[in-house]
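Hey all, sorry for the wall of text incoming. These are the two entities for the joint prediction.
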Amino acid sequence: MSDAPEAAGTGATYVGSPIIMATVRVVMPFVFTFGLFVMFHGADSTGGGFQGGVIVGTVVLMLGIAFGIGATRDWIGSRIPVAVVGIGVLAFLFTGFGSVLLGAGFLEYSVYHELGIPHATKYGIEIIELAIGVIVAGIVTGLFFTIAAGVGGDSE
Amino acid sequence: MTAALQAALLVFVVTAAVATAVLRSALSSVVAFGAYSLGIAIIWVFLRAPDVGLTEAAVGAGVMTILFLLTIVKTDSPTVERTFERIDYRAAAIAIALVLALSSTVFALPAVGNAESAVASDDVTNYYLDNAYEETEVKNAVTAVLAAYRGFDTMGEAVVVYSAGVGLLVVLNREVFG
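and here's what came out:
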């Protein structure tokens, strides 16, 4: 109750812990796979792009907590999350207005069937889920990096 | 058995919510808030809304807790002598009155799983349930509604997330890196 973070005010947010590092190394691939599963399998079971994207973003959060947020940000690059978000939005818009260009309504996936894509509706929905997932994962990662580097002097 | 579990979960969620409000240490409040989100996530699953439950568990209990923790690490926390915040009784009375006023609408809701409720007998609901698989080839009707029937709304949501996120990142980056 009374032990508020000792590091408060000093800006030292990272303390290397072999237990956390080892745990994250073991758990991370499973969490990543689960996130992708939720994203891709959202069409047939619980989940979808939003939930899957958050879980994929959580992998970066775990890496940051285990190996230092500054180091993780340098490894991934601070511009990549924002670029990824932009790509997700463009993919969504492209899929949506592509069907309009082909002469159907907005997001009317069945028109892609004429281009020779089998199960056009199902795969169209999967692409939309993937785009949403990429947007959410990018935003979660970007917010994490920026808030961690916030006011108070992040010297990492 | 299920009723007892649900009652226990409700008590847990309300306790965690009250603890979030009255605990004095910010760190304790964040932990209590994470517990609250986890309890709510399980309640969503009981209410047959696993999609919402998964979102609540991932965002509310997971990501939000980490973002809050990162934020309070940056602040100076005063040394805490009391465990609980002093309660402002007038504010508490107004909060309780609001809760009671809103709770009066709960009795107007149909029972969980009631087949005659307006939602279950609605034409739109039954159209989705009857045609979602033939028309969209996905088995999760929620996904069919979100990504196909209501795709334009979902695009709006995606763009809202994009603009809010990018706007926040621009402002925060200016704060941080000058």
